[in-house]
Write a structure and sequence with these properties.
By secondary structure, this protein is mostly beta strands. The protein folds into three domains: about 60 residues, no CATH class; about 300 residues, Methylamine Dehydrogenase, Chain H (7 Propeller), CATH 2.130.10.10; about 300 residues, Methylamine Dehydrogenase, Chain H (7 Propeller), CATH 2.130.10. Helices cover about 5% and strands about 45% of the residues. The chain is globular and about 80 Å long. About 55% of the residues are buried.
């Protein structure tokens, strides 16, 4: 059936947006063009073009796999990313602190913790210039009203003026005695205002660089009951009024102040925030003020009377940035929850929630025509959004990203029949998902968030009826749950520091756990009794710097051995019955993050903070292969059920597939955030991965390298109990299997 004109237009628009969203990935990996665009376009399109898109993609998939049988990964779950996302600008090597459009909307300026100011083409996303000169983080940056200059302020206590076209440094303004947190041009471009750690606002002649006025105002910080202020004190935000006669500032004392720009006299002090005032701006007509705060709210004020007009409960992790749209009808805000929110400035209603950043949003602003929004984040990326879109409110369920906390999704595992997935998050929850649809079946609460209670590890029992989990912070226990009802069945106590990992034995009768206390414990899965304590190096009192934290553990598929990973870079193999240490495998140069056996018990795979994976002979301990490709820490790894390929996830936001015999990489998927965990389905070619944004990704491995596994249970049944020729490690005594010490 031919496409209608409307359908053709919708399809082309969907493809165009997908190219924009994926351009930063495709510039580095053009070989992934089919995979990345297919995985994005399948979720794109409006109501009028979705059916046409589905038909075209189905046809294209058949043609592609006939012509290009090579491996690729198909995304089966909707990404936790707003459809309003237009582009991702990558180049900064540190947190983004500030970003803004040029007056004509053609360029974007950003500053960050890599000590640079960068200029971008707002249409293509191409980086136009890198301005270097600051000796420390750039906290604020903005264009002049005519777009010819850029002003920036940084931790090096200076304000700098640059030529926006040439990138030349035009002036260095010195006078602040502490870090500069904010800076802006006056509407006519003749003056610059800056504020910082020294509590002062300073007004400068933008042409000569001479200091015109110093205004003292903000005082000691407001200390919130449950969290510290972002900075100990200072002026956090500043702006001129549209007519240039007034200056607005927000500070860690929780106040927003209006000063006379000529005399420096304080005109009004706006009080109401219960945390530092992190951001503030005038409306385009100067009649209203918007401010954001560490207390999580956005406030709208009458600029004349100082009355509070509205209080918007905005971002749970605190508000870092806010601004009016050019016509004053909308407000944009960003915050610690990683979201950008668009509000109706009159009613205070939420118009859209834009999700795509995987860490705190530090800065946001409208384009001059109000059609786009730019945002910067601690995830080191600048993102451009469609400011008119409201489709972004429909997003999939996910683990919450808690501000200033690791995670996202920290652990994941398939059920033995492959029908469900369990995930553990930085929000302290476990979620059970339908592996076919990606729907959430249950949310299990019981790990303390205040501890903090990130769920580091979770696993199904072999019959799928129970779950085991461990969490971080002050928790030193293993928890067992009913996988059907979500009821907590038991709490296993014995470790004396954070428990890092847990796993059931193949017959479900035992559980092994690892801990930062330098030990592994084997438990009776029914009674909760400690059966054995395996010591790498018992650590007491707790020592955060110890090299002997045990980071991961797993049973062999025949249940006879246990492998564990240690922070010192070694793997240890243990007899699962007697607790005797059988071997120490050395090769990694940094801590081991994950380890597991192949399903035929012949090999072990491990991942490490050194950026590599290693495959070992499980009998001899010989290193068989070193797998290199991840740019940063490899966080997780696993064999496919039949053992032909290995999967890995890493801090470089990628999932990779490797041929386990040759060690050659044969598949790459680019996620939206650092990948913290991954797992293969035991029944088919599905796999899952969890990332720092809170997304659980379900992927299908397709093409020649796709696993065509036997069910894991069948593989285990074919593996006889192995007689191991390991000898006792010199100088190590076998742990007492009757140790009941708690």
């Amino acid at each position: 059936m031919p496409l209608t004109i409307a359908e053709q237009r919708g399809v082309l628009e969907a493809f165009g947006r997908s190219v924009g969203r994926e351009a930063h990935n495709l510039s580095r990996h053009p070989e992934l063009t089919w995979q990345q665009l297919y995985n994005d376009v399948q979720w794109a399109g409006d109501a009028g073009s979705q059916e046409a898109l589905a038909r075209l993609l189905h046809q294209a998939l058949e043609v592609h796999e006939r012509r290009e049988p090579g491996p690729w990964m198909r995304l089966l779950t909707r990404p936790r990313r707003s459809s309003a996302l237009l582009a991702v600008l990558e180049g900064h090597s540190g947190w983004i602190r500030s970003c803004a459009f040029s007056p004509d909307g053609s360029r974007i300026v950003s500053g960050g913790d890599d000590d640079t100011v960068r200029v971008w083409d707002a249409g293509s996303g191409q980086q136009l210039a890198v301005l270097e000169g600051h000796a420390n983080s750039v906290n604020s940056c903005a264009f002049s009203p005519d777009g010819s200059r850029i002003v920036s302020g940084g931790w090096d206590t200076t304000v700098r003026v640059w030529g926006a076209g040439s990138g030349a440094q035009l002036a260095i303004l010195k006078g602040h005695t502490g870090a500069v947190f904010c800076c802006a041009f006056s509407p006519d471009g003749s003056r610059i205002v800056s504020g910082g750690f020294d509590d002062n606002l300073r007004i400068w002649d933008a042409a000569s660089g001479a200091e015109l006025t110093a205004i003292e105002g903000h005082s000691e910080p407001v200390w919130m009951s449950d969290r510290e202020c972002y900075d100990p004190r200072g002026c956090r935000s500043c702006a001129f009024s549209p007519d240039g006669s007034r200056i607005l500032s927000g500070g860690d004392d929780g106040t927003v102040r209006i000063e006379d720009a000529a005399s420096g006299k304080t005109l009004t002090v706006l009080e109401g925030h219960f945390g530092g005032a992190t951001s503030c701006a005038f409306s385009p007509d100067g009649s209203r003020i918007v401010s954001g705060s560490d207390d999580g709210t956005v406030r709208i004020w009458d600029a004349g009377s100082g009355d509070t007009l509205a209080v918007l409960e905005a971002h749970p992790g605190g508000v870092t940035s806010c601004a009016f749209s050019p016509d004053g009808s909308r407000i944009v805000s960003g915050g610690g929850d990683g979201c950008v929110r668009i509000w109706d400035a009159g009613s205070g209603d939420t118009l859209a929630v834009l999700k795509g950043h995987c860490d705190m949003v530090t800065s946001c602003a409208f384009s001059p025509d109000g059609s786009r929004i730019v945002s910067g984040s601690r995830d080191k990326a600048v993102r451009i959004w469609d400011a008119e879109s409201t489709a972004s409110l429909a997003v999939p369920a996910h683990h919450l990203k808690i501000s200033n906390r690791s995670g996202g999704v920290l652990s994941c595992a398939f059920s033995p029949d492959g029908s469900r997935i369990v995930s553990g998050g930085g929000d302290g929850d476990m979620r059970i998902w339908d592996a076919g649809s990606g729907d959430t079946l249950a949310v299990l609460k019981g790990h303390s968030v205040a501890a903090p209670g990130q769920v580091f590890s979770c696993a199904f029992s072999p019959d799928g009826s129970r779950l085991a989990s461990v969490s971080g912070g002050w928790s030193t226990t293993v928890k067992i749950w009913d996988a059907g009802s979500g009821k907590k069945l038991a709490v296993l106590k014995g470790h004396c520091d954070t428990v890092t990992s847990c796993a059931f034995s193949p017959d479900g009768s035992r559980i092994v756990s690892s801990s930062r206390d330098g030990t592994l414990r084997i438990w009776d899965a029914r009674s909760g009794r400690t059966l054995a304590v395996l010591e790498v190096d018992r650590i007491w009192p707790p020592d955060p710097s110890s090299r002997f934290h045990v980071t991961s553990c797993a049973f062999s598929p025949d249940g006879s051995r246990i492998v564990s990973g240690v922070r010192d870079g070694t793997l240890r193999i243990w007899d699962a019955q007697g607790g005797e240490e059988l071997a120490v495998l050395k090769g990694h140069s940094e801590g081991v993050t994950s380890c597991s056996f192949s399903h035929d018990c012949s090999r072990i795979v491990s991942s490490s903070r050194d950026g590599t994976m290693r495959i070992w002979d499980a009998q001899s301990g010989e290193e068989l292969a070193v797998l290199k490709g991840h740019r940063n820490e490899v966080t997780s790894c696993a064999f496919s059920p039949e053992g032909s390929v290995v999967m890995s996830g890493g801090d470089d936001a990628t999932v990779r597939i490797w041929d386990s015999a040759s060690g050659v990489q044969c598949g790459l998927f680019i996620a939206g955030a650092a990948v913290d965990c991954c797992a293969f389905s035991p029944m088919d070619s599905l796999l899952c991965a969890g990332d720092e944004s809170g997304s659980l990704l379900i992927l299908e491995l397709r093409g020649d390298a796709a696993a065509r596994p036997q069910p894991a249970a069948a593989i285990r049944a074919a593996v006889p109990a192995t007689q191991h020729a390991w000898r006792r490690v010199p100088g190590k005594d076998s742990p007492n299997a009757n140790d009941r010490d708690a």
